[in-house]
């Protein structure tokens, strides 16, 4: 009898390719985001927008060479952001010092004050039945007419109005 031993070998599949982004001017590693503790990110209308754990929003230009805008939106962490593909409004959910509930803020990125900070067209608190519940899911129509916010407690809030 001849026994054939088959080697069991796991096949590796490469799902993603890794390509390091280099700084265009220095041709070295891209370090613009190095000291930012990113909590959320979104993109739309020629922007890449980054929110961090200190409540700051960074708007990256399309060449990834510098921040075209940087401003403090919250005094604590930004939880969620959404940039509409149709209108230049940035939808944010975050936390402020002294507030136990998450706060929604909507910024008009085309309108800024004399310091370059975008105009906050709307802000309001989100109330859940459980005060300790955190935002766990968000779904938004592109025109911001319908917004659904899910909490870790299972509560869902549906906003159906013109929130801009």
TrEMBL record:
Domain PEP5/VPS11 N-terminal: 11-164
Transmembrane segments: none
Superkingdom of origin organism: Eukaryota
Pfam families, alphabetized: PEP5_VPS11_N
Name of the molecule in the record: Vacuolar protein sorting-associated protein 11 homolog (Trinotate prediction)
Organism: Henneguya salminicola (Myxosporean)
